[in-house]
Amino acid sequence: MYDICSIGHITRDKIITPEKTVFMAGGTSFYMSRGISRLPRRVSYQLVTKVGEGHRGEVAKIKALGIDTICLPSRHTVYFENSYGADSNNRTQRVLAKADAFTVDDVSSLNAKIFHLGSLLADDFSPEVVECLAEKGTVSIDVQGYLREVVGQDVRATAFRDRDRILACTGILKLNEHEMRVIADSDDARTVARDIAARGVSEVVITLGSYGSVIYAGGSFYDIPAYRPRRVVDTTGCGDTFSTGYLYCRSLGASPDEAGRYAAAMCTLKLEHSGPFDGTEEDIKEILKNEK
């Protein structure tokens, strides 16, 4: 029985910014695994991923960090192209290859208190997979993938298929300011949070970029600030980094407010470079101390 089991595809990413173009691994499971490996081992953690035969080097690197890892076979590895303009909050995406979806057979033997589903595309996790995992533990979902599909190589917005069926099985939902408009057709984070909670979700985490975050849990709202980075280099993986810090702290018994602030500080450090969070808990605590 693990505290957290992260399930999702490790991707190949091409990241284009005004300053440069870099190639690296990506995906929710990648950013979460690399990020959590930098934190004190107070939480037991497992990674479950799918990659193609020729791209398992990054999985080996994660295993070498001491992460308990299951790598399932796939015909291909997900290959994303992320392009950012002058406004780092906006990006355009293409998918040059897709991996196989996760199935009930893939997850039926897993055991964890929290299952975090890092959805990248709409068909990654079927309602049947979510329902299977919800019988075992709390399901945490990053909604981003459920709202985008691939047409040709272009990533296009799509409706949240089976929304109510999936949310009824979801304990923690993470979304951003763009995604909340799709799910609940509102620009008001508190209105969206209440709407999602009414569909069965216990904790709603809405990140608002440089404006911070709003968390709705137990009938209460928590406003989380965005701590100012020394410079903004790359926002790729920030949402995944937030989920990492939040679930890590919640697994240790921290309140939603404490977990949200810890997660926000992790994101500040991640923003300052390309790639996953590579700081320490001491770095996180230093940001929290200086912002008081």
TrEMBL record:
Could you list this entry's UniProt keywords, alphabetically sorted. Kinase, Transferase
Domain Carbohydrate kinase PfkB, by residue range, is 4-276
> Kinase as a keyword?
yes
A Gene Ontology term for the protein's cellular component: cytosol
Q: Which InterPro entries match?
A: PfkB_dom (IPR011611), Ribokinase-like (IPR029056)
Top-level division of the source organism's lineage: Bacteria
> What's a single GO MF annotation on this record?
kinase activity
Key word Kinase present in the record? yes
Q: What is this protein called?
A: Ribokinase
Q: Which species?
A: Prevotella lacticifex
